[in-house]
């Protein structure tokens, strides 16, 4: 395990391990409950500079069609023109524009998030969870982070009014990142 003060050993190129990484989201439904989902098809890379974290970078490409809320009808609706319009915008992307160390094991990654052809700057606070060598000899790191976006900012605006007041789907959506990345070379 790498200690918090030994981030220099983390320097290198990394690839997200999709079988041990979750890119998820949470949205309020009918004003009374939450719907959780994830994207199951994505690729991601990171260039980490352990001595100068501000020189690190991240890139993530998510296939919109891989959205999974464990309900086929809802997933089809989310893929449709009402929400992600995935036939026209098959990918959701994030490209970092800055990384800042905010604490001993915390980092803020700011970047351009593009959903449905609309790009907005977002900042995701991450916590470094540690480094380990897996049984196959791979050096891997763990990071967790989340941020809340307003889906309206990305042109994802479909909704339905409820008889009791309010709307079926919340505008605020929490994006969740549970990352396992494998060091290359």
Can you walk me through this structure?
The chain has 185 residues and is mostly beta strands. The protein has one domain (7-183): Lipid/polyisoprenoid-binding, YceI-like (Lipocalin, Beta Barrel), CATH 2.40.128. The protein contains one helix and eleven strands. It has one helix at 72-79; strands spanning 12-16, 22-29, 33-39, 42-48, 57-63, 67-68, 91-101, 106-115, 118-133, 139-150, 169-183. Strands 1-4-5-7-8-9-10-11 form an eight-stranded antiparallel β-barrel. β8 (106-115) and β9 form a beta hairpin. The longest helix has 8 residues, at 72-79. It is globular and about 55 Å long. Belongs to the UPF0312 family. It holds the Pfam family YceI. It comes from Streptomyces bathyalis.
Characteristic terms for this protein:
eight-stranded antiparallel beta barrel; mainly beta; 185 residues; 54% strand; Lipocalin
State the major sheet: 8 strands, antiparallel, barrel
Q: How many structural domains are formed by the residues?
A: 1
Count the E strands: 11
Task: Tell me, briefly, the overall form.
Answer: globular
Instruction: Please report which band the strand proportion falls in: under 5%, 5-15%, 15-25%, 25-35%, 35-45% or over 45%.
Output: over 45%
Family: Belongs to the UPF0312 family.
Domain Lipid/polyisoprenoid-binding YceI-like: 13-182
Protein name: YceI family protein
InterPro entries: Lipid/polyisoprenoid-bd_YceI, TTHA0802/YceI-like_sf
